[in-house]
């Protein structure tokens, strides 16, 4: 404090050298809170503001701004008392394309503090400095300079402030619902911010595990101890402890269980894989223990290796989030979830490693299926992120709903789209072909009924059931049936004594609605119920009851009887056959159009010509 009078005189000296030295000394002593309190009590900070507003010397400006920032960091006075001239001057240094790097860095520090201090200052800063100018400080190179980091923090702080005011509404109002170049421009800003922030993890991704590092060895053993309740290792011999560690590292899924660090020597993902595993184990210990113990209790070939899966999953997330890739000049693919979630990489890993275990079980995978499972997990993550979830919880719900069976369905649908079997003109062609193919199936069903089928009679006694045969007459007017011997094959229609006119058939019943199933209620198993059908005839007082030999015969007869009754066929066999016939017919018809894109809509028919006087007149030639 005793230096203060000299400092005050030196700061206001007309001699540029004395003034510069005094400001440099001020910058170093301003870190002392006692000095800062005394200096500010004499309005020394306002003197510095005046120097900033009036001076154009870069060296003086650097020392003045550094001293001012150190004084303000103590929180003795409010940032809100700054003049608009001062704010414009600071913003001018940031906006300038060629400014001393040290000045820009301290100006970005000041801007960050302003943005965080109050809403009114935030609005003033936003008016003076656009996101475009801040992003201009973010280099496209892989290594960030200090000014780049400061610009990133200012930009991030602006978004943090907006988060309190509902950042999601801001993003969708100003970007998604904007139009044209504004939308593209803002999306690019968000993409660059996301890319640069995620790339802060690149050094860890590019660094292999150092087997000599005690800290990294401790993390590896911490993962092992968190998963398994082991006896006190201090009481064990060196060989016994070494054997126990190797056994538990193998259960954790490390390939090299005697030296697990070797598994993390590949870059990428390098140390980032160790970081994500450790984050999962410490942030969600119950889920971590459940994953490891559940798989260590399975057969060796069916266990999902945690460490190997984690390393590969970390690599997949790096590739999906493009960590390590510089932002492109035209990129605009940002993830809204990035702006609502801290530590996005680690939290995504925690959700996805549990998803991986779930998918492994759904696929009933073995060690040989490891690559297939990882391909499915990559697809699950990519498809979910492409739907632009705005929160981690929404991502978690969507990605877990996208199970293995759903992935298979989506792949099938996309394959059909690629084959153009779902193009509107092809669907229209299908509808035109359907009546013809349905008629073909009807004829086949009636022909099958004409051939006839052997059925077993239902008997409540414990003896060999009797057999009977039923067939349709060639003119489709009579159903002939009668008892037959077991070795009879395709009996002539004349040998079947009983017959029912098709015109007298009133209805077709199936399953538990059949009279013979009602009579034996509780005694029939589901297999018999699925094969039972009956026809009612005359005045519905009589019925002819069937138990089909197989599900195929059940479908053939119920379809054929439906045709005789003038009803639609409804069996699963009919639907399958129709789909096969349609697929074959479509492929045959589209053979000549291979590699020719089929338009969704018919070409526009041109307007007729104004006259038709363009036909060649042959009469004149004949003359």
Essential attributes:
3-stranded antiparallel β-sheet, 4-stranded antiparallel β-sheet, 58% helix, alpha+beta, 623 residues, ELMO domain-containing protein, single chain, ELMO_domain-containing, elongated, ELMO_ARM
Please tell me the overall pLDDT: 82
Q: In what order do the strands lie side by side in the largest sheet? A: 1-2-3-4
Helical stretch tally: 28
Helix content: 55-70%
Q: What is the structural class?
A: alpha+beta
Morphology call: elongated
The largest pleated sheet is described as: 4 strands, antiparallel
Low-pLDDT stretches: 139-149, 159-182
Distance between the termini: 124 Å
Instruction: Work out the number of β strands.
Output: 7
Q: What fraction strand?
A: 5-15%
Q: How much is the radius of gyration in Å? A: 40 Å
Structure description:
The chain has helices at 4-11, 16-29, 33-41, 44-54, 58-72, 84-95, 101-117, 119-128, 131-136, 146-164, 167-176, 180-198, 202-205, 214-227, 238-252, 271-283, 285-296, 306-321, 344-362, 370-386, 392-401, 404-418, 424-451, 515-519, 526-531, 551-564, 572-589, 618-622, and strands at 453-456, 467-472, 478-484, 498-501, 505-510, 532-537, 542-547. With 623 residues, the chain is α+β, with helices and mostly antiparallel strands. The strands form two sheets. It has a four-stranded antiparallel beta sheet. The longest helix is centred in the last third of the chain and has 28 residues, at 424-451. The N and C termini lie far apart (124 Å). Residues 139-149 and 159-182 have low confidence and may be disordered.
């Amino acid at each position: 404090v005793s230096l203060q009078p000299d400092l005050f005189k030196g700061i206001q000296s007309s001699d540029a050298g004395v003034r510069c030295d005094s400001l440099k000394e001020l910058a170093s002593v301003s870190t002392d809170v006692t000095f800062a309190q005394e200096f500010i009590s004499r309005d020394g900070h306002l003197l510095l503001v005046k120097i900033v507003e009036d001076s154009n010397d870069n060296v003086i400006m650097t020392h003045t701004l550094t001293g001012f920032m150190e004084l303000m960091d103590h929180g003795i006075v409010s940032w809100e008392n700054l003049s608009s001239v001062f704010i414009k001057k600071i913003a001018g240094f940031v906006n300038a394309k060629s400014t001393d790097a040290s000045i820009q860095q301290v100006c970005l520090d000041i801007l960050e503090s302003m943005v965080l201090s109050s809403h009114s200052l935030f609005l003033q800063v936003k008016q003076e400095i656009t996101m475009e100018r801040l992003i201009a400080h973010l280099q496209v190179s892989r290594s960030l300079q200090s000014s780049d980091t400061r610009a990133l923090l200012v930009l991030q702080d602006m978004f943090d402030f907006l988060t309190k005011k509902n950042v999601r509404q801001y993003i969708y109002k100003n970007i998604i619902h904007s139009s044209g170049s504004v939308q593209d421009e803002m999306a690019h800003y968000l993409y660059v911010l996301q890319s640069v922030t995620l790339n802060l993890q690149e050094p860890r991704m590019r660094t292999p595990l150092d087997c000599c590092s005690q800290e990294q060895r401790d993390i590896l053993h911490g993962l092992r101890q968190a998963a398994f309740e082991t006896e006190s290792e201090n009481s064990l011999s060196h060989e016994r402890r070494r054997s126990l560690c190797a056994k538990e590292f193998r259960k954790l899924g490390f390939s090299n269980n005697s030296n697990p660090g070797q598994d993390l020597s590949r870059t990428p993902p390098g140390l980032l894989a160790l970081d994500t595993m450790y984050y999962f184990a410490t942030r969600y210990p119950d889920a971590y223990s459940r994953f490891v113990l559940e798989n260590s209790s399975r057969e060796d070939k069916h266990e999902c290796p945690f460490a190997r899966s984690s390393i590969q999953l970390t690599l997949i997330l790096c590739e999906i989030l493009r960590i390590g890739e510089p932002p492109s000049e035209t990129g605009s693919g940002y993830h809204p979830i990035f702006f609502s979630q801290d530590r996005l990489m680690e939290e995504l890993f925690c959700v996805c490693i549990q998803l991986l275990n779930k998918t492994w079980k759904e696929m009933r995978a073995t060690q040989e299926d490891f690559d297939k499972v990882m391909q499915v997990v990559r697809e699950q993550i990519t498809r979910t992120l492409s739907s632009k979830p705005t929160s981690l919880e929404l991502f978690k719900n969507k990605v877990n709903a996208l199970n293995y069976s759903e992935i298979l369905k989506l792949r099938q649908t996309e394959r059909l789209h690629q084959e153009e079997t779902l193009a509107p003109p092809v669907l229209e062609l299908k509808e035109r072909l359907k009546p013809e193919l349905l008629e073909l199936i009807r004829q086949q069903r009636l022909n099958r009924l004409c051939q006839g089928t052997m059925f077993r009679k239902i008997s409540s006694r414990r003896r060999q059931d009797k057999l009977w045969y039923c067939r349709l007459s060639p003119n489709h007017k009579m159903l002939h049936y009668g008892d037959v011997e077991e070795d009879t094959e395709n009996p002539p229609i004349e040998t079947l004594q009983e017959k029912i006119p098709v015109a007298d058939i009133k209805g077709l019943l199936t399953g538990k609605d059949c009279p013979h199933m009602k009579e034996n209620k509780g005694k029939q198993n589901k297999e018999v119920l699925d094969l039972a059908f009956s026809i009612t005839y005359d005045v519905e007082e009589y019925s002819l009851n069937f138990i089909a030999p197989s599900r195929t015969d059940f479908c053939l007869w119920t379809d054929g009887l439906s045709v005789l009754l003038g009803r639609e066929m409804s069996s699963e066999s009919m639907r399958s056959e129709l789909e096969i016939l349609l697929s074959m017919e479509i492929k045959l018809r589209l053979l000549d159009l291979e590699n020719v894109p089929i338009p969704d809509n018919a070409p526009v028919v041109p307007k007729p010509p104004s006259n038709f006087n363009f036909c060649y007149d042959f009469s004149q030639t004949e003359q």
